[in-house]
Design goal:
Largest sheet: none
Strand content: under 5%
Number of strands: 0
Radius of gyration: 37 Å
Structural class: mainly alpha
Helix content: over 70%
Order of helices and strands: HHHHHHHHH
């Protein structure tokens, strides 16, 4: 019961947070829109109420859609990553195993022979002991010596494999840095840092594919002709100008379309 109560409280808190995110205060926006208009306070209040309700509804709908799509995309991405990672690990292990067997075929063969010899000698020793035949202990030390040499060989082999993996990772990292550095030469310092952040989680399959991905990100984020953010000091257009035409409303950016349409309606109502 305690766990259920805590879960209910967490759900209520999440719902309250979501509800707060839907609430929109457009007082300043309405004031800016009708600042130079001779409109009554009642009209301004109604306009504010209508705008806030409409925007909050759209925000809520959009958040719900985004959350659902985000969860769907996340699940699909996780599954894809798991499958891809599993395949890569399997391929790598198969490659390492095959390569190791090829390079150590002789050592493996000798190791098997040593194991067989050790089993044979131990069995022979037991047989002698059962029939009261004494064999000097130092004669069996040869097997132990061979086993020790085999262990040393395996340790050295493991060290070499680990070193090769480390070197491969270092080479890959150097190639990544070189590609990013070359792509950043024309960019400003801040843009170079931004490009570096964008490429941190990009998969590195090979140099050519990684270079293509970096070029794509560079062109997408640092090309000319991007929309510029409107500053808080932007001057609101005077009411003496003509109402916005239908074409201007249709061609406005999606996030400004509602405001543009509202300005046109207010201007017509005032006439």
């Amino acid at each position: 019961k305690s766990n259920t109560s805590e879960d209910d409280e967490e759900e209520e808190e999440e719902e309250e947070v979501k509800k707060e995110s839907y609430e929109v205060d457009m007082t300043n926006d309405i004031e800016a829109l009708v600042a130079d208009e001779d409109l009554s306070e009642e009209f301004k209040t109604k306009a504010k109420t209508i705008f806030e309700a409409a925007v909050a509804t759209k925000v809520k709908e959009r958040i719900t859609e985004v959350e659902a799509q985000s969860q769907k995309d996340t699940d699909a991405a996780v599954e894809e990553i798991k499958e891809d990672l599993t395949e890569k690990v399997d391929n790598y292990l198969n490659y390492v195993a095959e390569d190791w067997v090829k390079e150590n075929e002789l050592a493996i063969e000798r190791g098997l022979k040593s194991e067989l010899t050790e089993d044979f000698i131990n069995g022979l020793k037991k047989l002698f002991e059962e029939h009261y035949v004494e064999v000097p202990e130092d004669k069996f030390d040869v097997v132990e010596e061979l086993a020790g040499r085999l262990d040393d060989t395996e340790d050295k082999l493991n060290e070499e494999v680990a070193q090769n993996i480390s070197l491969s990772q270092d080479i890959e990292e150097l190639k990544r840095e070189k590609i990013i550095s070359e792509a950043s030469q024309e960019l400003a310092d801040s843009e170079q840092e931004r490009l570096k952040e964008l490429t941190e989680d990009v998969d590195y399959e090979d140099a050519e594919k990684f270079q293509e991905k970096v070029s794509t990100l560079k062109e997408a984020y640092f090309k000319t002709g991007k929309f510029e953010a409107v500053s808080d000091d932007t001057t609101v257009a005077s009411s003496d100008t003509d109402p916005l035409s239908t074409d201007e409303v249709q061609n406005a950016r999606p996030e400004m379309a509602g405001y543009t349409a509202a300005i046109s309606k207010f201007a017509k109502l005032d006439d």
